[in-house]
Amino acid sequence: MIRRRPDVREAEAVLHVATAETGVAVASFYPDVSLSGHFGTEGLRRGFPSNAWVWPSRAFEIGPAISVPIFEGGRLKGTLRLRQSQQREAVLSFQKIVLNAWREADDSLTDLAQAQRARTEITTAVHQNELALAAARQGYTEGAIDFLNVIFVQAALLQSQGQLVSVDTEINTRLVGLYRSLGGGWEIAK
Questions:
Q1: Does residue 64 register a pLDDT over 90?
Q2: Is the Cβ–Cβ distance between 140 and 149 less than 8 Å?
Q3: How many CB atoms lie within 10 A of CB 167?
Q4: Max Cα distance, the chain (Å)
Q5: How far lies 66's CA from each of 53, 63, 70, 74, in Å?
Q6: Contact, 41 vs 20, CB < 8 A?
Q7: Phi and psi dihedrals of 184, rounded to 5?
Q8: Residue 190 has what pLDDT?
């Protein structure tokens, strides 16, 4: 999933280019062999266009050509060292970007897990406060406690419900952070 990230894809592409350029630099040490050919007519030079179609007025040649890099050794070695250095730099950059991507994804997963644990604790507190409010109302109706205690329990319930809303918002924010750290492009199954 980390390969979906644009920064990782870009670093990977730079690494591929650097590797290919190193291969081109190595290949430049070997001779170039090519095959070429030429076909033409001589009839128009003699002044008569009708001579263009006569067989003796036609000319052609075909043959190989070999280019050997004998006197370019210093330039070729320098180019090869440069390309190899660029390739090593691209490898290090790629490794750094991938490790950073892993760190971000791991941090996002850790943050999301912590927020989900906090939600579990707050949900338990909300449930306990709801039970306490029901008991306080029943105690008030039976005359065992005064209404001020009911108000205090109700305030505790409202506070824990507010914390639940806050932690739900934090979970959604952490989920977006995880989505971003993994490069996006996927959907949560419902």
A1: no
A2: yes
A3: 19
A4: 130
A5: 33, 10, 12, 21
A6: no
A7: 70, -165
A8: 61
- For residue 60, what are the β-bridge partners? 39
Q: Among residues 145, 111, 153, 165, which one has the least CA distance to residue 129? A: 153
Phi first, then psi: what are they for 183, rounded to 5°? 95, 0
Q: In the structure encoding, which two tokens stand for residue 71, read together?
A: 């006197």
More confident residue, 162 or 43: 162
The C-alpha atoms of residue 170 and residue 177 are separated, in whole angstroms, by 10
Q: For the chain, what is the total number of helices (H) and then of strands (E)? A: 3, 2
Task: Find the length of the chain.
Answer: 190
Rounded (to 5) percent helix, strand, coil in the chain: 75, 10, 15
- Quote the pLDDT of residue 186: 61
Q: Using pLDDT thresholds of 50, 70 and 90, give the confidence band for residue 67.
A: confident
pLDDT digits (tens, 9 = 90+) for 75-105: 888 999 999 999 999 999 999 999 999 999 9
C-beta separation of 63 from 38 below 8 A: no
The pair of three-digit structure tokens given for residue 129, joined into one six-digit string: 């406060």
Cα 166 to Cα 86: distance, rounded to the nearest angstrom:
49
DSSP 97-134: HHHHHHHHHHHHHHHHHHHHHHHHHHHHHHHHHHHHHH
Domain 2-26+35-181 bears CATH identifier 1.10.1270.20: no
